[in-house]
Amino acid sequence: MKWLALTALCAVPALARAQTPPDTTREAPPADSLEARLSRAEDAIELLRSQLAEQSQAKVQSRLRNQVELSGLILFNAFGTDARVNNADVPLYVETPQDSSGMPNSYIGAAVRQTRIGLTVSDVHVIGAQLGADLQMDFYGGSVGGNLNPLLRLRTATARLDWPHVGLMVGQDKPLVSPVIPVSYASSGFPEFTAAGNLWAWIPQARLTLEAGRGVRAGLQAAALAPQSSKDYDDLTAQFVDTTNSAQKSGRPMVEGRVYLDWGDGDLESSIGAGVHRAWFATTGDTMLVSKAWTVDAHVAIGEHVLIQGEGFFGGQALAGLGGGGVGQNWGVNGVPVRTQGGWGQLDLRPSFAWEIGGGYGFDDPNDADLNPATGRGKNVVMEGHLHWRPGGGLLFGAEYRRIETTYAAGVLAANDVNVFAGVAF
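Below the sequence we write its predicted structure tokens.
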């Protein structure tokens, strides 16, 4: 019907001119005459047609004609660090011993492997629920021949069914008990505060959510996650081999539960929550070792210009499989589970759309009595400050400073890392 109306509107000026014989001596019609108005309407309709045609050509269409949105970020990072660390472009902790061969411990470099791409499916209704899906990838999956040949990596992949008060999700995502994402463009291959309080690991899982309320919503969640052992960010050797581990041999999934309060919508959505994590590891005897933690989390938007967020865990044990808990150590002296606690907090200020400034602090503090005195990594602290500038059109510039302090039996080693970045979001 809309197109019929537009066609009729286009035909009106033509019919009007056809019924009136041309008069070459007539002066131009006044600016507010019917003919002038119709002429302007024709021009506006033609412009609208052109814009609709452009949108139709740019639209991503799925085979099932679902609404699909393509997004991404082309990101260039240049970095420099003044000490020996475990990873060049996104350092997590300071290594020991420092290089004593005479070569410098400091270095500089650049990379594009934190570039990301994503697909989102939305506005699909099935079996009385709203169906949604999200796929996020980057190029941080290792390399072939150095950092000039980064490999594509799956970050998260989720499918959701949402009824008015019930939600079901399956796929790969952060742990249920660690839902908050720190702000950072310098550290996204390994999320900010990895090995310093952020239990971030993307793990296959199934998740159920029950929620009540409208303005302020209360929720109860439960999840079963694929069992994870000590394989974490240090284990990058067998990229295409998935060998079994002691967590899988336990025959039990990891399980997590969380309660939360949530309010607001869109960029102003806020939440606070508390959770519990449990997992098991097979041993050569009749008993199993346990991974466990109690957690808290918060993501609070104060108006459009202030964001306060953070997470914490305590009573933790054998948490390396969640992305670096216990500073990447599941087992300590005589194979005992490494006990640990930690957390992170971040303040982000947005005085305008273009500018963003903030900083944060995170730590992970394993129990020293559980560690190997010669090689064990003790408390690891990360302090960061960042500045972002978005002039428009998806263009992004920024810088981030991070100080990392890692404790060993011989003392505390420190590293200062500066990361300058530029990118284009789409």
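The chain has a mean pLDDT of 88.
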